[in-house]
């Protein structure tokens, strides 16, 4: 399944947002860090650059993390996505920018707070994922020492590890060493 460009970018931003406090401490602890995150994803519109804005984004981050936690239960995931769409008062409209000439959706006014805009756009991307029957693409890293989330874009939905801590490589090396140790014992 191929998703629209804005859906993929938005879901990747959601992964990065959720993971911003799951690996190596809080990566969005300051307003500067939040601005870098927003700039990295081309987020336009109002920025208050205050403690309330940062706290609201942190609350959104926790809320999105819960969506990944219940991704194996479609009804619960739908309930959370619908609640987020409602709470952010998502109202879709088509737009494009010079830096992104393809038509894409915005789901909140550029004058709305950043957490509301992010929440609405991420909720709509999650709704697209659910409508496509692809909710199982939302996963938590399979490494025993990692709780980072991922959006599996592999063709056969077989990705098991996140990109944040070299988890896949570490797990493969550990399995190889275990196989070698077992073979040496025999």
**Adjacency order of strands in the biggest sheet:** 1-2
What's the total helix number? 6
Classify the fold: give the CATH topology: Jann2411-like fold
Q: Looking at this structure, what is the CATH superfamily?
A: Jann2411-like domain
Low-confidence runs of at least 5 consecutive residues: none
Q: Structural class of the secondary elements?
A: mainly alpha
For the termini, the CA-CA separation is 46 Å
CATH architecture: Orthogonal Bundle
Helix content bin: 40-55%
Q: Gyration radius, to the nearest Å?
A: 18 Å
Largest sheet: 2 strands, antiparallel
Overall average residue pLDDT:
90
CATH class: Mainly Alpha
Shape: globular
Q: How many domains in all?
A: 1
- H-E order: HHHHEEHEEH
Number of strands: 4
Work out the strand percent: 5-15%
Can you give keywords for this protein?
186 residues, mainly alpha, Jann2411-like fold, globular, Znf_CGNR, ABATE_dom_sf
Describe what you observe in this structure.
It is a single chain. With 186 residues, the chain is mostly helical. The chain has a single domain, classed as Jann2411-like fold (Orthogonal Bundle). It is 51% helix and 10% strand. The chain has a two-stranded antiparallel ribbon with strand order 1-2. It has a two-stranded antiparallel ribbon with strand order 3-4. This is CGNR zinc finger domain-containing protein. Residues 137-180 form the Zinc finger CGNR domain. InterPro entries: ABATE (IPR010852), ABATE_dom_sf (IPR023286), Znf_CGNR (IPR021005). It comes from Mycolicibacterium komossense.
